[in-house]
UniProtKB/TrEMBL annotation:
Residues 26-599 form the Major facilitator superfamily associated domain. The lineage of its organism: Eukaryota, Metazoa, Ecdysozoa, Nematoda, Chromadorea. Belongs to the major facilitator superfamily. MFSD6 family. It holds the Pfam family MFS_1_like. The keyword Membrane applies. The chain crosses the membrane at residues 26-46, 52-74, 86-105, 280-299, 320-339, 359-378, 442-463, 475-495, 507-525, 537-559, 571-592, 598-615. It comes from Caenorhabditis nigoni. It comes from the Eukaryota. It is found in: Membrane. One of its GO terms (cellular component) is membrane. It is a multi-pass membrane protein. Keywords: Membrane, Transmembrane, Transmembrane helix. This is Major facilitator superfamily associated domain-containing protein. CDD domains: MFS_MFSD6. The keyword Transmembrane helix applies.
Length: 687
C-alpha cells in the first residue's frame, strides 16, 4: 500500500502509518521492552546474589558512564566506515550475548541454614551442606540422568540424603523490625556480633551463663553487651564488637577459621562465601562494561534511522519515541506478575517453601527474546551515507521539539548569547561550549540538571531494593513502572505549556522542590503501596526536567558550539548524574540504609533549589519566561517587530519612537531618500 507521494504505508485499525516510521515504532517497543523486562530488576537480582548496595550501585552506575565514554569512539567509527546497519546489528547482538553471560554468573552456594533438631535450648540454627546442583541447563540435566544413573529430581535426592533439608530457612524471615535497617544487605555470619537466644525469661538463672560466655570470648570494655526481651517469653543477649557492622546472625556450628566470612542474602535460603561474592562482582563488572561498550551505539543509530524516516516531519520523532515508554512499562508489569509466581526452582541447592526468593531466569530469557525481535526489526532500517553520526544524533533529537519553543523567547535567548557569549567563527567549538556553560546562570542550571539526574539514578537502582525490604512484591514493582511511564507519556504532551507559562528556570525550581517532597515521603513510608502516588510525580518530574534542560541548552548555546553543549548536557544528566547517583547512593545505603539516604538526597535537592534561587536573585536573573511578551528583566521588555528584545535607551529604540513603521517592510524604519527629494523638486519646478 502506498500514499499519494509513493511512500509505502501500513494500515492499523483504520489509521495509516508510513511503513518505515511504523517499523521504528515497533523497534522502540521491542527494544525498550527488552530493557524493561530485566534492567530495573538488576539491583534486587544482585542483592539476591549476596551483594551489598555499594556493589550493586557500582555495577549499575558503571553502565551510563561507560556508555558516554565510548560515545566518541563509535561516532568516529561510524563516520569513517559508513556501515551503520551492520554496526547496529552488531551492537544488538553484543547486548544479547553479554546479557546471557551476566545471567550465568553466580557465586557457588556451599551451605544452607537449617533449624537445629528439637531439644536444643541454646541455639536455633546451624549450617548444612548445600545440595548438589546440575550445571549446564537442559544438557546438564540430560547428562546427569544418563551418566549419573538417577532419574529422581535433585530435590528428592537431597531429601533422602539429609533429614535437615526440610527445615531450610530464610534468615531474613527471622529479623525483627528493630533489628532491620531498610537497604542494608546481606546478612553476615561473623564473630563481630553474636546473637544468643534463650527460652526462659528468668534473668537470674542465666546471669552466670552470660558472664561465663563473655569471659570465654575475651570480652573487654570496648564490646557492647545488651540484654533485652524479644517477645513475651524470649530473652536475647547481643554482644557486638563493631556497632557499624551490617546485619549478622549466629549459627551453632559456625567457625570463622574453618568457614571464613559467610553471607546470606535477604529473601533467600542460600549462604555464600564472601570471597565468592566478590569474585562474581568483578566478573559481572567486566561483563557489564564490555556489554555497555559494544552496545552503546545501538540506540543512537536507531534514533538516526528514525530521524531519517521522519525527515519530512521531524516533530513525529517524539511521538514515535513514546513507544519506548509503552514497551518498558508493559514489559515490567508483565515481569512483575510473572516473578510473583516464580518462587520455584528446578535446580535449587537450598529449596524451601518459606522463602520469598525469586527466579530471575525468566527476566533474562524475556530480555533476550525481545532483543532478538528488535534485531529483526533493525534489519529493516534504511540508512544513507549522509546520515548523522551517533555522536550528533542526541543534539538532533533535542532539536525536534524546537518548534514548540516560543519564537519570542528563542530570539531573546539567542540575542543574550550573541551579546555575552559570542565568539569568532574560527574559535574552537568545544571552547565556545565551555564558555557558554561557564556563565553563572547556566552553570547553576546545569548543576540542577545533574542533581536531578542523580536522583533518577538513585531511584532506578534502589527504589525496588528499598521497597522489597519493607514488604513490596514484584507485582507492585510492575504497577509502579506502569504508573511512572504513563505519567511520562501524559507529561510529554503538556510539558511545554508549563514551560511557556513559567519559564525554564522556574520549572527547574519546581522539579527540585517536587524531588525534595518525593524523597522525604519515600523515607518515612512504611506501606510500600503508598509509593504509587509518588510514581506519578516521578514520571512527570523526570520528563519535565529533560524537556526543560534540552530546550534551554539548545537556546543558550552559541551556534558553533550547540552540538558540544547538547552532548555536555547528555553526559551531565544521563552519564554523570545517573551513574554517580547509583554509585554514591549505593555506597551510602550500604552504611546508613536507604531511608536516611533518601533524606540526604532530598535535602540536597532543597539546598540546590534554594541556592540557585538565591544566586539568581543576587545576579538579578530569573531566566527565560515564555508568555505574552512579558520578560523578567526590566531592561529588555520592549519588542521589535520580529520579537527581538530591544533596550529602552538604545538608538534603535529612539528611532522607533521618532519615526513611522512601514508594515509592508516588516517593521523597517521609513527614511528620507535624498534622490527622491531632488526628483520631487525637479518635477514641481517644471510644471
Amino acid at each position: 500500500m502506498e500514499n499519494h507521494v509513493g511512500e509505502r504505508t501500513v494500515n492499523i485499525f483504520g489509521k495509516v502509518f508510513p511503513r518505515d516510521a511504523f517499523i521504528c515504532r515497533l523497534f522502540y517497543l521491542s527494544f525498550f521492552a527488552s530493557f524493561g523486562s530485566l534492567f530495573p530488576l538488576l539491583a534486587v537480582y544482585f542483592k539476591q546474589l549476596g551483594m551489598t548496595a555499594a556493589q550493586a550501585g557500582f555495577l549499575i552506575g558503571s553502565r551510563p558512564i561507560v556508555e558516554f565514554l565510548s560515545g566518541p569512539f563509535w561516532s568516529q567509527f561510524a563516520s569513517r566506515f559508513r556501515k551503520q546497519k551492520l554496526l547496529l546489528l552488531f551492537s544488538l547482538g553484543s547486548l544479547v550475548l553479554f546479557t546471557l553471560g551476566i545471567g550465568l554468573v553466580q557465586p557457588v552456594t556451599p551451605y544452607c541454614i537449617v533449624y537445629v533438631p528439637e531439644g536444643n535450648k541454646t541455639c536455633q540454627t546451624m549450617l548444612a551442606p548445600a545440595g548438589k546442583i546440575i550445571r549446564g541447563g537442559a544438557l546438564g540435566m540430560l547428562k546427569e540422568t544418563l551418566v549419573g544413573g538417577s532419574t529422581k529430581p535433585a530435590r528428592h535426592r537431597r531429601q533422602t540424603q539429609s533429614p535437615l533439608v526440610e527445615k531450610i530457612i530464610d534468615l531474613s524471615s527471622f529479623d525483627s523490625e528493630e533489628d532491620t535497617i531498610a537497604g542494608i544487605a546481606p546478612e553476615y555470619i561473623t564473630r563481630d556480633r553474636i546473637m544468643v537466644e534463650f527460652d526462659n525469661p528468668e534473668l537470674v538463672g542465666y546471669l552466670w551463663e552470660i558472664l561465663h560466655f563473655a569471659y570465654n570470648n575475651n570480652m573487654d570494655q570496648t564490646n557492647n553487651i545488651c540484654l533485652y526481651f524479644d517477645g513475651s517469653n524470649d530473652m536475647r543477649l547481643q554482644i557486638s564488637t563493631n556497632a557499624r557492622q551490617p546485619r549478622v546472625f549466629q549459627v551453632c556450628n559456625y567457625n570463622e577459621d574453618n568457614y571464613g566470612i559467610l553471607v546470606s542474602p535477604p529473601h533467600s535460603t542460600r549462604v555464600y562465601r564472601q570471597p565468592a561474592v566478590e569474585q562474581a562482582f568483578m566478573l559481572l563488572l567486566i561483563l557489564i562494561c564490555l556489554c555497555e561498550f559494544f552496545s552503546s551505539p545501538a540506540l543512537p543509530l536507531a534514533d538516526a534511522a528514525t530521524l531519517h524516516a521522519v525527515r519530512d516531519n521531524p516533530a513525529e520523532f517524539g511521538k514515535i519515541r513514546l513507544m519506548a515508554s509503552v514497551g518498558w512499562g508493559l514489559a515490567m508489569f508483565i515481569m512483575g506478575i510473572a516473578l510473583d509466581y516464580s518462587d520455584t526452582f528446578r535446580n535449587h541447592p537450598c529449596p524451601a517453601e518459606n522463602t520469598t526468593e525469586k527466579n530471575y531466569t525468566l527476566c533474562f530469557v524475556m530480555c533476550v527474546i525481545f532483543m532478538l525481535a528488535a534485531m529483526g526489526l533493525a534489519s529493516k532500517f534504511k540508512f544513507d551515507d549522509d546520515m548523522a553520526a551517533p555522536g550528533e544524533v542526541g543534539g538532533l533529537v533535542m532539536d525536534t521539539r524546537e518548534a514548540e519553543v516560543s519564537h519570542v523567547v528563542a530570539e531573546k535567548a539567542r540575542a543574550r548569547v550573541t551579546q555575552s557569549e559570542g565568539g569568532s567563527g574560527s574559535e574552537n567549538s568545544l571552547l565556545l561550549a565551555m564558555k557558554a556553560l561557564a556563565s553563572m546562570h547556566i552553570l547553576l542550571f546545569f548543576i540542577s540538571v545533574v542533581v536531578m539526574g542523580g536522583g533518577a539514578g538513585l531511584v532506578f537502582s534502589f527504589l525496588y531494593w528499598h521497597l522489597q525490604d519493607i514488604g513490596g512484591s514484584p507485582v507492585l514493582f510492575g504497577i509502579l513502572s506502569v504508573v511512572n511511564h504513563a505519567s511520562e507519556i501524559i507529561t510529554y504532551f503538556y510539558v511545554f505549556k508549563l514551560i511557556n507559562k513559567y519559564g525554564h528556570v522556574r520549572v527547574m525550581y519546581l522539579c527540585l522542590a517536587v524531588n525534595f517532597f518525593r524523597f522525604m515521603a519515600l523515607s518515612i513510608l512504611d506501606n510500600p503501596w503508598m509509593v504509587l502516588p509518588l510514581q506519578v510525580l516521578q514520571g512527570a518530574c523526570l520528563a519535565t526536567v529533560w524537556s526543560c534542560a534540552s530546550s534551554y541548552i539548545s537556546l543558550v548555546a552559541p551556534p558553533h558550539a550547540k552540538q558540544h553543549a547538547q552532548y555536555a548536557l547528555q553526559v551531565g544528566y544521563h552519564g554523570i548524574g545517573k551513574g554517580i547517583g547509583s554509585i554514591v547512593g549505593g555506597s551510602v545505603i550500604s552504611v546508613i540504609g536507604s531511608r536516611t539516604t533518601f533524606v540526604i538526597y532530598g535535602l540536597i535537592c532543597l539546598a540546590t533549589c534554594a541556592g540557585s534561587f538565591g544566586l539568581n536573585k543576587l545576579f538579578k536573573y530569573e531566566g527565560i519566561k515564555y508568555g505574552a511578551g512579558n520578560f523578567e528583566e526590566e531592561d529588555m521588555d520592549i519588542m521589535a517587530p520580529q520579537g527581538v528584545p530591544m533596550a529602552r535607551d538604545g538608538k534603535i529604540t529612539d528611532a522607533f519612537n521618532a519615526t513611522t513603521v512601514v508594515n509592508a517592510n516588516y517593521g523597517a524604519i521609513a527614511q528620507e531618500d535624498p534622490t527622491q527629494d531632488a526628483y520631487d523638486r525637479y518635477v514641481s519646478t517644471t510644471r
